[in-house]
Amino acid sequence: MGIFICRKDVVHIIFVLSLLSSDIGFTRRVNATLGINYGQIGDNLPQPSQVLGLLSSLKITKVRIYDTNPQILTSFANTGIDLIVTIENEILHVLIDPQQALQWVTTHIKPYFPATRISGIAVGNEIFSMDDKTLISNVVPAMVSIHQALVQLGLDTYMHVSTANSAAVLSNSYPPSAGSFEDELGGVMKQLLQFLYTTRAPFWINAYPYFAYKDAPTKIPLDYVLFNPNPGMVDPYTKLHYDNMLYAQVDAVIFAIARMGFGGLEVKVSETGWPSKGDQDEVGATTENAQIYNRNLLRRQMANEGTPLRPSQKLDVYLFALFNEDMKPGIKKKIPKYGVLDIPLIDIPSFT
Q1: What DSSP state is assigned to residue 334?
Q2: Which parts pass through the membrane (predicted)?
Q3: Number of other residues whose CB lies within 10 A of the CB of residue 27
Q4: Is residue 271 flagged as an active site residue?
Q5: Quick one: which of 138, 194, 225, 278 has the most CB atoms within 10 Å?
């Protein structure tokens, strides 16, 4: 009895094999530690100087913030903490102008560096999954202008320019080797990837296995999304085994990028986490599950793990979040909760 494979499957298999033998699985090691997201939209948050004590107790040396709060930039000076700052979505249209971008960098970055170790600038957050096409079209031009300003000021070798993307930019993520971007993002995504490739900057992805589990709790094993022991899944094309969803999501992004012709880009997780409390429809949002997810993620980071596709490159991850932000627009007060200070992390000696 003959085995028939359609042309589409043949093309896919050839694509996968070419990637597995190319630099998509490159072995450059990255010395990284688990980072954390530090949001500030709350009514009961400690001052930045107090936050430093918390970060020190948690052994955290990498932080991402969602603005360029001068109080934070000043407080973090000479602490050795790597800081990713963010340009708010609302001002991107202004920064398309190179002169405005230069003024922004001169005002918000240059006065604090190098005392404050700013290692990256995120231009907007999750814009490509929004409906505002004008805003989407502003992202890459603003990134180009900001990078040009860094070059002009001699800062481009110290910090990268990127943007954080929602997992919603993917049209397909299962199996990981079938990862692809939404067709409607094709043009702007190629511009973004070309910029990242040219400037050697990473692709940032906000990856939340929790959301996938919440939407299909009867189909997705809880242990698979919590990093607990489980049978996992095998990608039928790469034959790579996945024992957790986060790594599968990241590898799906890597494949999607490679499909656009930029297989060598590094992918970093700008956000991931698990809520300790939620509304009635927030299935699985419990303190116990959040504790398990964060603890197991920490253990993976301490083991210097990479994904199955890039096992020798430690995955750079930023946990969401340091605090619960109860004043975020559109968020029900106090739920869902992601703040790690509400989630005991037992039996973990350090983040490093």
Answers
A1: T
A2: none
A3: 10
A4: yes
A5: 225
From the candidates 266, 271, 288, 325, give the one annotated as an active-site residue. 271
19-52 pLDDT, tens digit per residue, is 554 544 433 333 446 899 999 877 778 899 999 9
Where do runs of H (alpha helix) occur along 200-232? 209-215, 222-225
Residues in the chain: 352
Handedness of CA 64, 66, 70, 72 (dihedral sign): negative
280 domain residue, yes or no: no
- Hunting for tokens 């499909």 — which residue is that? 259
Query: Nearest-CA neighbor of 271 among 148, 156, 118, 163?
Result: 163
Question: Which residue range(s) make up the domain with 303?
Answer: 7-272+298-327
- The 3 state secondary structure assigned to 181-203 is ECHHHHHHHHHHHHHHHHHCCCE
Chain centroid, CA 69 distance in Å? 21
- Answer for the pair 297, 34: CB distance below 8 angstroms, yes or no: yes
Please state the pTM of the whole predicted model.
0.89
Kindly tell me if the per-residue pLDDT of 330 is higher than 70: no
With H, G, I as helix, E, B as strand and everything else as coil, classify residue 266.
coil
Q: Report yes or no on 107 lying in a domain.
A: yes
Residue 181, classed as helix, strand or coil, is strand
What pLDDT does residue 32 have?
A: 46
> For residue 135, is it within any domain?
yes
Q: Give 209's contacts (C-beta < 8 A, 6+ positions apart).
A: 225, 244, 245, 246, 249, 272, 293
Q: Are 200 and 160 in contact (CB under 8 A)?
A: yes
- Structural domains counted in the chain: 1
- The helix-helix angle for 7-20 and 245-259 (nearest 10°) equals 100
**CA–CA gap between residue 93 and residue 110 (Å, rounded):** 21
| Active-site pick, 88, 90, 126, 184 | 126
- 180-181/170-172 β-pairing: antiparallel
CATH number, domain containing residue 156: 3.20.20.80
182 in catalytic set: no
